[in-house]
Amino acid sequence: MDSRIAIRALDGLAIALAGALAVVVLIAAGQPLFTDDLWWHLSLGEAYARDGLFLAQDPQLFTAPGPPSTSSWLSDRIFYAVWQIGGFQALRIFHVLLAGAVLVLAWRLLRRACESATVASLLWMGFMGLSAYRLVQLRPHLLTMLFALALYRLVIARDAPGGRTRVAVAVLLLLVWANAHSAFVLGPLLLAVSAAGLLISFLVDAAPASTASRSRIAVLGAALVLGSLATFVNPGGIEPHFAYFASGGETPNLLRVADEWLPVSLFGLPVPRLPPSPLAWFLVWGCIASVGLGAAHAWRERFGKAPAWGLDPALLALAVVSIAMMLTAVRFLWLGIFPLLLLAEILRARRAQDANRQPKVATALLAALAAAAILAAFVRVGDWPMISRAISADRYAQAYPTGKYFAHAVWMLRDAGVRGTLYNDYTLGGFIGYWLAPGLQVFVNGSLNVPPAVMEANRAIRAHRGLLPGQDLSALLDSYGIDVYFGIRLPIDRPGSKAFFFTTTDLEGARGWIPIFRNLDSAVYLRATERNRANLERVSAWYESEGVPFDSEIGFDAERVIRAAPVWAMRRGLIPVDFAPLGRESGAASPTRRLAAQERLAALYAALGLYEDALRMDRRTLQLDPDNQSARRRRVWSLLHLGRDIDAVREAEELRDDPAHSQAARLKQAVAELGSVEDPGAAVSLRSRLPLFSEEEAAWLKTGVPPAEVRAR
Predict the structure, then answer these.
(1) Contact 512, 529 (CB under 8 A)
(2) CA distance linking residue 219 with residue 209, whole number of Å
(3) CA atoms of 585 and 578, how far apart (whole Å)
(4) pTM for the whole thing?
(5) What is the 3-state secondary structure (H, E, C) of 104-159?
(6) What domains appear along the chain, each with residue ranges and CATH number?
(7) Phi, psi values for residue 398, rounded to 5°
(8) Over the stretch 325-354, which tens digit does the pLDDT of each residue have?
(9) Average pLDDT over residues 479-506
C-alpha cells in the first residue's frame, strides 16, 4: 500500500475516533435531565418572569436569609423560556446545542493553533477528557465556557483581527456574561492575564515591540477597561464581583460542594465517583508538563540557547494561570483548553523546524493508537462512569430520571397538598422545591442561599445527631420548625464513598412524628403538632380518595397498604410487579424456588420497615439453609431496628466475616458497641447508620419495581 494512502487512512481514523468521543459526550449531555441545580434555576426563572428581578424572598427556601442572588438571572430566564417553548425535552435539546457549541469552538481554536487536523483531534480529545463532567450538566457555567472561548477568539488569540468592532463585541459579550453567570469575572481576568503576558515579554525582550504587538496590547487594554465597566451593568451591581470571596461568610463555604470546588491533589489518587477522574487527573499532569516545557523553552529562547518557537506570550500567561485555577478547583478543569492550545503551538513549531521531513506511517499509526487509547480510557477510567448513570436504553427518552429524585414521595406530597416546611438533603432541594414550593418550602438547595449554620445542621441530620450538647435529631428539626421530614435511600454499604448516606429509617418510632408515606427507598414523616393538623387532614383525605388505608393516629402502615391496595402499592414503589407470585413461590414444593422467594420477600420487608415479617421469612430461610449469611445479616439488622439488642447479640454470633459483604463486620461491631452506649440518642443514631445491602443486592431488590411517572408540571 502507498504510504501516503496509509497515512491518510490512519489520520482519518484518529479524527473519526475524536468525533466518536464528541458524540459520546453529546449523548451524555442529551440524557434525561439529571442536573440537580437546573431545578432551582427553573424556579427562579419562573419567579423572575412572574415577579420581576427583585424578589422579596427566595421562592424555594424557608431558611434563606433574603432573596436569591441575581448573578445568573439571565440564564434562569433563558432556561425557563426554553421550557415554556417545548417543555423538558426542549431543555435537553438546548443542552446538547450548548455543549456542542463549546466543543465546536474548542475544535476550531485547536485546529487554527496547530494547523493539523490529526494533532488537533488528539488535543480535542484531551479537552473532552477534562471538561466532560462539566459539559453534561445543564447549568449557567456552560455559558461561561462558551463565552470564555469566544472571548479568546475575539480579542486574545494572536491571529485575532484587531479593531473597534471586535472590542465592541467583546464588551457586549462581557455585559451579557455578567448577567448570565457569577463566573463572569473570569472574562476580565483572561484579558488582564493576556495583556500582562505581552507586557512581561516586552520587558525581558531586548528587541523593540512590533506594531502588531502594540496593537494587541491596545486592543486587550480597551477590551479590559470597557468590558470591566460593562460587567457592572447587572441587577447586583458590584456584589456579584465578590461572590466567590463572600462564600463562607454569609453563605456556606464553596468547598462544601464536593463535585465542584474541591482542589485537585496532584500527589493523591482520585476519589471514586468524584472528579477528577483518573483520566482527567493524568491529563492535568500532561497540561502541567506542556506549560513547563513552553515556559522553559521561552526562557532559553530569550537568551539564545534554543531555536525560536515563537510561542505567544499572552497564551503562555493564560496557560500558567489556567493550571493554577485547575489545581484550585475541579470545576475549572475545562480551562485546560489554554495549556492544550499552548501545546498545539509547541507542536506546530516543532513541525515547522522539521519541514523537510516526510510524514511517516509510524507517526500516523501512533496518533491513531493514541486516539483509540484516549477513547477507551474515557469510557473505563474517565468521566464516563460518572456522567452515564442516568443513561439506559429503556429510559433515555424520559425527560428526567424520577428515581434519582425519589419522585414517588414527591408526587405523594404534591398530590396530597401538604404545606409548610420540609427537611431535605442538599442534592434534592432543587427538584423538590420546583414541584412543591412555595406551598411546601425546602431546607436547602444548590443555590446555597442559606446561612452556614443550615449546612452544618444538614450535615448533623445526615449523621442522625444534634448540633448542641444533649440535642438529638428531633430537637434539631424542631429548632428549625420542620413540618415534614423527607428520608431517602436504601441502607446500602458503599465502600470508599464518603458522601453516601441514607435517612429513610431515621424517624422510625420517633415520638412526635407520624409516617405519612413509605416505599423501598424513601420515607416521609409529618410532625404531629397542632400546626400540622390541617396537613394531617389533607393526607387522610387524599389516601381516602385513593382507596388506600391510612390511620391518622399511627400513620402509614406499609403492610396494610400492600394487603388492601396492592396495585397502588406497586405503582408507588413499595413492591415489585412479581410480589404476588413471590408469595406463592415462598410456599413452593421446590426448596430452591422456595428459598429464592423467601430471601427476596425478607429483603423487601426489611427495606419497608416490616421487621417482624422479615424475621419470620428469614427464620424459614434458615430452616432450609442454616448457613445462609444474607438471612443472618438481615435478622441482626431487623432485630437492632426493633430494639431487641439481646437477640441481636445472639444472632450476630452466627455471622461470619465476609470480604464480599463488609456489612457483616459492621453489624458485629455495632452489636458490640451498643452494649457500652449509655446515651439512648447515640444508640438510635448507631442503628440508623447501619447498612444492610450491597449495591448489587440493592439493584436486585428493586428489580421489577416500577419507577415513578414522569410529570410535565
Answers:
(1) yes
(2) 15
(3) 10
(4) 0.93
(5) HHHHHHHHHHHCCHHHHHHHHHHHHHHHHHHHCCCCCHHHHHHHHHHHHHHHHCCC
(6) 3-387 (no CATH), 401-575 (no CATH), 577-713 (1.25.40)
(7) -65, 150
(8) 999 999 999 999 999 999 999 999 988 887
(9) 88
